[in-house]
């Protein structure tokens, strides 16, 4: 029996529904941010992140900062790239465009490899771009929350290491970490940035990231200082290292309550093999995508290999308006998200299926959402052709 | 009867002890950051901040961002000052030095008016500095958390408006907002940045600020773009204005739980006249400072007019080490903070007295802390001369 009051089930691509124990950790009594109890909790949290990202390389460096997922872009752009350096941004939608804008603010020269809405840049095009210029960094949005397009990391990393081995590989994993497989060491990634409120299942308010020894080296050998103060790796790296070594340290006050909640969420995730977690998300996703197809509807992500497993972006039939369907679903106790990709914003909706809604089927969230979608579409005038 | 488990009383200069209802708001069930319920809560929170800062000028602009108090420095330095412009930083300790470092990262030319440890720059010295150069901005740390030195805002603002009327006046109010008087409109301030976890009494994780119409104008008329992406006023201003108008809007995901807690904290604060709240903090402070004097100890802030009312920085007797006294106090159930000002770090401790520990005397926090300090000093070998 949940300790949460009855409420509509939140099935947007983040924030997601939270486990009771995680929410209770948010109410933790006040602690000193440099006291031994909290230092131990924060230190353990950083170590747990190494397991979540599947990295055992001691040179890998986790960061947990107060902020939203977007702050991770600043962390990358202000620290790992210097003004005038070239960055290749693989573009799959709204969030890749945002990452590109962030790089420009910090003075990088940005080249984007684009793809039509609902698809992702293909490896031959990426190879061509990499051969044209020496890039300091390539970035990829693992799951673009605006389209539900999934990018492949393993093959991409192999390509980059083959044709441009000095190029740092940085992943925007905001909508993928903890629901899509990420083997940080094995795939030789240099950075993954994410947020607390998606598949990790901790309320919003934390920017979470992991960087490789090679990325940290790139930061150490900068010729110019970090371009951010709050998001400066110079300011934060010793703090993160001290916390993980269980030593008190201060740059700016972390949020003990959010860190406690993250600790609880990570502990829950890591009680079971990660492979099992990813498989559960794939199974739920397959079921949802099957139901969408049964309804005669198309996904924004057109190719089955490019479809995310923690969310589904669904094109609406012409006769159904999102402005009518979403409130209808809300009355049925299910909250979906509207479109956000500028080119198609009014034409689709987004269904998030991450975390406890997937791993605790006894909650019935997915069943309820599929039923609501079927009924809601009918009530809004849709009849399958 | 508190719903919190028994725990040591946190009396450091932030985070502070939190009210039960505020902590319970941290466990709010998950909501969409763009859904009508949360949009209303966030919008009301922004309007409540206008009351807390005592501003009725509709041109004033509040911001609530995920981040720590330090992020407020970036918000000021990356948006309101352009590279090469001159900033005058009034320096009272560790936190003024940090603000100066932040400006340098964003390309400002920083001049500091310094003062000996435990005092603050005096008006004639500030006037002299203002007459030497045309400054875009002057900053003052209202209460420097490292020393407990209180700066005067009203007289300072009068001086600046008299001798350098175009200079923006920005206040670091991290350790002063909600325990020291700040009359934003009446004192003609242009910016006050603060954090959630001090006298406002909401867990850490939010950067909270208020800017004048004049400051927003300075941002609008920048020749170069904002130097930060996550802390960009261009990105956030429309979002804050939309939330306050109860319209959904998105740049980066806010933390619904923290915003609920802030809403609860502000609602509690504003049920009573602010003057009463400030008077209560002054009365508790006077009592604590009296007890410190009775013990024969000196404060870091030497001049009674320069002493903060939400914290007290206390020089230890030569024979007592902080490393011995602080654990002794902790065993008595009272957490004080060590020193942080580099020049004197080992020689003093800090006692925070803000929020519920002051406004709810029935908690007995202050009584307990004074008794613990008296007993702890004796047990650590101190005898009043």
UniProtKB/TrEMBL annotation, chains A, B:
One of its GO terms (biological process) is glycine biosynthetic process, by transamination of glyoxylate. GO terms for cellular component: peroxisome. Its cofactor is pyridoxal 5'-phosphate. Keywords: Aminotransferase, Pyridoxal phosphate, Transferase. The modification N6-(pyridoxal phosphate)lysine is found at residue 198. Its EC number is 2.6.1.44. Residues 28-345 form the Aminotransferase class V domain. It is an enzyme of class 2 (transferase). It comes from the Eukaryota. GO terms for molecular function: alanine-glyoxylate transaminase activity; L-serine-pyruvate transaminase activity. Substrate binds at residue 350. It holds the Pfam family Aminotran_5. The keyword Transferase applies. Belongs to the class-V pyridoxal-phosphate-dependent aminotransferase family. This is alanine--glyoxylate transaminase.
């Amino acid at each position: 029996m949940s300790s949460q009051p009855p409420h509509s089930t939140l099935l947007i691509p983040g924030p997601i529904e939270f486990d009771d124990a995680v929410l209770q950790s948010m109410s933790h009594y006040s602690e000193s941010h440099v006291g031994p109890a909290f230092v131990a909790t924060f230190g353990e949290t950083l170590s747990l992140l190494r397991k979540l990202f599947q990295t055992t390389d001691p040179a890998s460096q986790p960061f947990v900062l107060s902020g939203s997922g977007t702050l991770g872009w600043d962390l990358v752009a202000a620290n790992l790239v210097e003004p005038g350096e070239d960055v290749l941004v693989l573009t799959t939608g709204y969030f890749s465009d945002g990452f590109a804008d962030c790089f420009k603010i910090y003075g990088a020269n940005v080249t984007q490899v684009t793809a039509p809405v609902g698809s992702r840049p293909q490896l031959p095009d990426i190879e061509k771009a990499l051969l044209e210029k020496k890039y300091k960094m390539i970035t990829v949005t693992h799951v673009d929350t605006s389209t539900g397009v999934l990018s492949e990391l393993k093959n991409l990393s192999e390509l980059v290491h083959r044709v441009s081995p000095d190029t740092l590989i940085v992943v925007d994993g905001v909508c993928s970490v903890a629901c899509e497989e990420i083997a940080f060491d094995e795939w030789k990634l240099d950075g993954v940035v994410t947020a607390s409120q998606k598949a990790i299942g901790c309320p919003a308010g934390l920017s979470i990231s992991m960087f490789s020894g090679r990325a940290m080296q790139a930061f150490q050998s900068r010729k110019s200082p970090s371009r951010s103060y709050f998001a400066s790796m110079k300011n934060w790296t010793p703090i993160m290292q001290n916390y993980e070594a269980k030593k008190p340290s201060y740059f700016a006050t972390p949020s003990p309550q959010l860190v406690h909640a993250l600790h609880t969420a990570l502990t829950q995730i890591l009680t079971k093999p990660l492979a099992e977690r990813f498989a559960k998300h794939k199974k739920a996703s397959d079921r949802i995508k099957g139901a969408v197809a049964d309804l005669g509807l198309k996904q924004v992500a057109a190719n089955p290999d490019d479809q995310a497993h923690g969310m589904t972006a669904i094109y609406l039939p012409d006769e159904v308006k999102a402005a009518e369907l979403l409130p209808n679903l809300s009355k049925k106790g299910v909250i979906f998200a509207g479109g956000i990709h500028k080119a198609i914003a009014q034409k689709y909706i987004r269904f998030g299926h991450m975390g406890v809604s997937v791993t605790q089927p006894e909650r019935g969230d997915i069943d309820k959402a599929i039923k609501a979608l079927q009924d809601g579409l009918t009530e809004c005038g849709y009849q399958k052709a």
